[in-house]
Write a structure and sequence with these properties.
The protein has about 300 residues and is of the alpha/beta class. It folds into two domains: about 220 residues, Spore Coat Polysaccharide Biosynthesis Protein SpsA, Chain A (Alpha-Beta Complex), CATH 3.90.550; about 70 residues, no CATH class. Helix 1 packs parallel to helix 2, helix 8 packs antiparallel against helix 9 and helix 9 crosses helix 11. About 0% of the residues have low confidence.
């Protein structure tokens, strides 16, 4: 079966045993079975393992793999999946989400064309609450663009379904900061975007339900508790390839998260490649730090 695997679907999971069934059933319904499902258990305490073993026994037409690791956050679970990948491309599927039944077919159809374009590292489909309501979409479909600076149209959020070449997924592991358990997936897309283009396809293939306690809903408070990861993400978005408005916003965030990390301005400057912009935005970042500290740390 291994030679037929083209797509690796990776699902990091933490105490989502009951939700994995829906995720699995959406994979069972795929019209194209040239994929594998890799579940990385990020230190769950709810016997996720037995749920995945059940899926392994029921799976028809595709293999299911399971790996358990010490809890470290979603980004570390994604890093742990590297050694298990057999597919040419990687799609990240959260444990509380599902795919449309034609998702794998559409992904492989798109990559069958773009694979021969080495400048393209990511093909991005849409996420949505249903097929008609995408969270965001692109005005320029089916053409290579700069994922760092390209302005998506975002009625709901910037969330999309990126499918990346496996060699790039492995080449750019997520940075890990001691004591921190969260890092935005945008860090990966921005790092890949420094050398490769992205192609957008305006088709919803990924269906989302946001749960209380999930990463998407935790948002800002999660980033405040993991400030060095927030600095890393903001720093990448300060790139001169980005729009000036976005660069300024992220310079403010960089200094704000630096304050939450307990860093002094000279320490922030030493960690920043855009020092002039950082110093200009430092006062605004400090006031944002005071506001968020009052709002989120009470």
């Amino acid at each position: 079966m291994m030679q037929n695997i083209i797509l690796s679907i990776v699902t990091p999971s933490y105490n989502r045993r009951e939700l994995l069934r829906r995720c699995f059933e959406s994979l069972q319904r795929q019209t194209d079975k040239r994929f594998e499902w890799i579940v990385v258990d990020d230190g769950s305490t709810d016997d996720t393992e037995s749920a995945v073993i059940g899926c392994q026994a029921e799976a028809r037409g595709f293999p299911v793999y399971y790996l358990k690791k010490k809890n470290g956050g979603k980004h570390t679970a994604l890093n742990a999946s590297h050694s298990l990948l057999h597919g040419k491309y990687v799609l990240m599927l959260d444990s509380d989400d599902t795919l449309t039944e034609d998702a794998v077919s559409l992904v492989l159809e798109a990559w069958a064309f773009w694979d021969t374009h080495p400048e393209v590292g990511i093909v991005t489909f849409l996420k949505g609450s249903d097929l008609e309501h995408p969270h965001c979409y692109a005005a320029d479909e089916n053409c290579p663009v700069d994922i760092i600076s390209y302005p998506r149209i975002c009625p709901v959020s910037q969330d999309a379904c990126e499918v990346i070449r496996t060699e790039l997924f492995r080449k750019f592991p997520f940075p890990v900061f001691p004591g921190e358990h969260f890092l935005s997936e945008g860090v990966l897309w921005n790092r890949v975007g420094l050398t490769h283009k992205c192609v957008y396809i305006n088709r919803v293939i990924y269906l989302c339900e946001y749960l209380e306690g999930g990463l998407t809903r935790s948002g800002r408070a999660m980033r405040i508790r993991n400030p060095r990861g927030g600095m890393c993400s903001a720093h990448l978005n300060m790139s001169k390839r980005n729009r000036l408005k976005s660069r300024i916003k992220n310079a403010i965030l960089f200094t704000c998260y630096g304050c939450f990390a307990g860093m002094k301005p000279p320490q922030m400057a030493a960690a920043c490649d855009h020092k002039s912009l950082m110093w200009l935005c430092l006062p605004f970042g400090f006031f944002l730090f005071l506001y968020w500290k009052h709002r989120y740390e009470r």
